[in-house]
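This section describes the prediction task in plain terms. A model, or a person checking by hand, is given the sequence of a single protein chain and must write out its three-dimensional structure as a string of tokens. No templates, partner chains or ligands are provided. The sample shown here is typical of the held-out split.
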Amino acid sequence: MNKNTTTVRRGRPPKIARDNADTKALLIRTGLETLTEFGFSATGLDTILKKASVPKGSFYHYFKSKEAYGIALVDAYDSYFIAKLSHYLEQQNTPPLERIVNFTQSAIKGMSKYDYKRGCLVGNLNQELNHLSDEFKDRLMKSYTSWQIQIEKCLNQAKQQGTIAKTVNTQLMSEYFWIGWEGAVMRAKLTKSSTPLTLYTEMFLRALLT
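The expected answer:
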């Protein structure tokens, strides 16, 4: 026997550790995809874990409860949505009201892409308030407030440029925008049509200019 022959050790191959950040990101991504289409209360945790191919034990390593997971999903969605709003509403070379139209048109394209099955995660959760804790409700309101600030800044610029009247209360109109927009998104899902979104955008702009 050749003494230089390397002996191959038998046994299981070394186990490759799952990257913690990747697993958590996968759970967040799968949750966002699922809950923008289905309700939080109606969606079982097992459904999400099956789609993500993540065992339940691993889930509880990252999130102490389904509610904690839900709040983490809102955090992730809010970060994404604020970035999207900033992209459209802070384009200084575009007139302020046109920026709002560009944002709504982008949202319409996004809903159409998924056949109007997916909507706004925060809006969807807003339909389930009876099943959510006060902490969860406060987190949703925080998102709406931050989105309103984005619209308000844009409307203030429109006022400064004389596009809308000086008497327009931009704070109230920014709140009004999101109250109506979320309703339009829900109607678009119901009718599988962009008409509610287009109609609402048109009427909102008319309210600013009258």
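For orientation: The CA atoms of residues 78 and 155 lie 21 Å apart.
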